[in-house]
Task: structure prediction
Amino acid sequence: MISAVLPTYARAPMSFVKGEGSWLIEENGQRYLDLGGGIAVTSLGHAHPKLVQALKDQAENLWHTSNLYRIPNQEKLAEKLVAETFADTVFFTNSGAEAMECSIKMARKYFSHHDMPQRTKIIAFKDAFHGRTLGTIAAAGGEKLLKGFGPQLAGFIHVPFGDLAAVAAAIDDETAAILIEPVQGEGGIISADDTFLRGLRALCDEHGLLLIMDEIQCGMGRTGRLFAHEWSGVTPDIMAVAKGIGGGFPLGACLATERAAAGMVSGTHGSTYGGNPLACAVGNAVVDIIADKAFLAGVNRKAGLFRQKLEGLVAAHPDVFEGVRGLGLMIGLVCKIPNLDVVKAGYDEFVLTVPGGQNVIRLLPALTISDDEIAEAVHRLDAAASKVEATL
Result:
């Protein structure tokens, strides 16, 4: 008999009723050190007091009006994002998949707006992840995502990640854009080389294409800069953001230059809940904290400390781990044994991690994690690795 909750997740046996910073707490009081952060969502930890207060204050006044009217919180957040990024304009959504859908539509609409409707193809990369809608699974192109959901939405060409020559060869008269995650998250914490990103920007400029970046997982301070592409000095034309921007409250955004957004006029796109007063109240509080240069410097310092300790962990367990990779607090532990074995061993040590592609364990802790919590995290991961090692 099917469960009341559609069984599309193989859920772990824990059930949490409370969160405090980097910790999740079960009803019986058992505390778990959360290194998954709801998959890079709780960027400022659980129940951050400034986010809680922002939500409470807004909830006492107004929850929803729809986008038929101006929403002051939305306008304020858009202005902050424009001031901090390459973008001139922002469309708010409820999720990353919706932000990606807006990005894809915007790229196609741009060329239609300029009397080139044949230019609809988007070059994307193997092992990517962009969401679970029909459009975004087609953009990712993985068999695991697409199987059983045919026919596949046409218009996406997939090439190997990091292969600039393959990208150049894939461009034709119907190409509209190139879509990339600066750091592939679900794919296994794979960072795009700065030279590769610069090469993509050059190809877009040469051929009149739009460059779309998916910073849903790697954005909002996760890599030590507000957005990951900043490390390369490359700017996109369109960017999808979500996860960490709401700190746990559902919020996404599609950011764009005025040029790229030229075709998105009244009536071309919409969202009932996107940019609602509650979400944007929280989003404003998140951006105020994370965009601060001192805060980002702290993320980089903590990332260096965590990386150093994880290198020691890998050296201590050569039969379990192969290496460490990633940027900032978006870290991948590459495993030699099945990654799920290590994730499950972590449950016994009350530490939570997230599996990823290429047999990687993702560590996506709160950006507010303390030095002591980093030390405790490595201690618990060490105990989990020792447990698994004993069974080899």
